[in-house]
Amino acid sequence: MKNLTDASKEEQRKFLNSFDYVLSDMDGVIWTKYQVHKGAVDCMNTLKALGKCVHYVTNNSVANSEELAAILRLNKFDAKDGDVTNPQLTVIDHLKTINFQGILYALVTENFREQIRKAGFNIAPIPDYPIEESVEALTRKLQDDPNVKGVLIGIDLNSTFLKLQKALTYLKRDDCIFLTSGSDMVIPLGSVGPIIGTGHFANMISSISNRKPTNISKPSVLSCVHVNRKLGIRTPDRVLFIGDSVSQDMQMATMGGYQKLLVFSGHAQIKDVENWTYPEEWKPQYYIQDLNALYNVIKSLDLL
């Protein structure tokens, strides 16, 4: 691992010529709560001007990919609708790939549920809330529906005890698949964060049901397959993944066989590099403070 800023001009130039695709996380890398980080727009637009295919891979499933692309454009990023991949897209792609039949019980945002409906899948109703606080009332709400063939656990800002308990009802059946659209344990949210990540809910349901979920989001092989197919990537070693999380982004890059650049504008800090406690294969080739520092490196090389 090496600070890219400290590398020689020759090494920096060699690094920038070593990839054709840039996959970048969003939260913690280009912005926090949609507040754009200094230098992020110039950096990403310059990489695109250099001929790199720039694509954003995020676990943000509160907004759909078109909405995220619109926010990018609003902030002067050179981006079109197809330039963002989030769990909404990867989950729908997976459901189509496995020819999912039946009803899906989805503990996600209403925006996410609507995208799944638009893709032609049926969504199970959410239990009414609140309910009478009695065992009898709870029992009535936990009756099984054999037509529900899948449970999806993701970010649900209106999560309740009853919703989670209902997921366990369906997962008692072996013919009900278990999916998760995020494994983040915490999600940065500026000064009011972090907030509880999907990983905690998925792990709780997994532990009680004794069922292991299939993760369709970052980091997962399925997410890599989706992105590779979408962008036509045939040489993963010519792909650079930029991320702020070792456990999410650097692991994802390892799964995909991509090059790695770790930034310190979100989750990770310099101490994570100096006192490495993660698997060796997750180590990035380079790290850098943020995208502004990367932009300064690119500018200094006079590549345009």
TrEMBL record:
Entry binding sites for Mg(2+): D25, D27, D244
Pfam families: Hydrolase_6 (PF13344), Hydrolase_like (PF13242)
Cofactor remark: Divalent metal ions. Mg(2+) is the most effective.
GO cellular component, one term: cytoplasm
Keywords: Hydrolase, Magnesium, Metal-binding
Required co-factors: Mg(2+)
Molecular function GO terms recorded: metal ion binding; phosphatase activity
Active site: residue positions: D25 (nucleophile), D27 (proton donor)
Record-linked Gene3D superfamilies: HAD superfamily/HAD-like
Record-listed substrate binding positions: K218
InterPro entries: HAD-like_sf, HAD-SF_hydro_IIA, HAD_sf
SUPFAM superfamilies linked to this entry: HAD-like
PANTHER family (UniProt xref): 4-NITROPHENYLPHOSPHATASE-RELATED, RE04130P-RELATED
The family this protein is said to belong to: Belongs to the HAD-like hydrolase superfamily.
The protein's name: 4-nitrophenylphosphatase
